[in-house]
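Running this now, will post back.
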Amino acid sequence: MGNEILLESGTNEVEILEFFLGEQGFGINIAKIAQILPFERSKLTVVPHSSPAFMGALLWQGQTIPLIDLKSFLHLPSLAIEHPIVLVTEFNGVKNGFLTDGVNRIHRVSWGAISPMGALLDRYSSACTGSIHIEDKDIMLIDFEFIIASINPETSISHKHMNQQVETGREDKWIIFVEDSAFIRNTIASQLKKCGFAQVDVFENGLDACNHIRNLAEKTVKDGADILSALSLVVTDIEMPKMDGLALCKFIKKELRLETVPVILFSSLINEQMSLKCQEVGANAFLTKPRVDELVVLMDRLLGISKD
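Update: finished.
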């Protein structure tokens, strides 16, 4: 598939590829898809003593990539499919293959129409980040980073530990961290606090963070205070229900005019073209997951804590 920039930056829209596992529809951000192709068992090398969901190494474009059976991982009934489809993904700088029963179409939707996982969907709550109702059906968005981390923990964000040396000055900085994946959100928030960022407010979607920041801005204006006395820096994911990170950054910088508040976009989608989008919405910096050591270095630099 091509890598064209399909959507204007900061419009809070996303293109979701709908695919099937049995009769249930699931979704993935089209920006994560490198290719969609038929599954050819002759190109699969089985790896013994591996996770049940890890099918083996798939030969793809002259290289081997991990192939993961999504139905097995999600504990869905394994029915024989005549023509299964592989989604080859690329995020966090790594390529993986995911076996599905087929694909339907691409839906262009607003992040505002995507709901966080609710109590009725607890069965999928760890492996999904949200759901969207389209054409009388619910499509659940898979947390592919969580799946990769579960099958191959060494590549996950929890194993990319931050340098937890505590630098003077971090303790009195007011940080907002926005991330929809519970796994990543809890891991990074915990590590930020361990390395000295004592004031971290955590949000699971961009809209909640947006409303909080708006309230902070209004209060500081009313009190005649500087916004930096209440908000030092924002770290946000890009893919999120309700409001994505690009729209959140655009709102902070261009609607609220909080140019002095640094914003870091920390996402699995950072590439050359996404970097252009980050710049268009006024982000101070952008960084790909799971480079968490670099995240703290970047935070220190933008906060004036760095010794460099």
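The chain has two domains: 13-154, 156-303. More later if anyone needs it.
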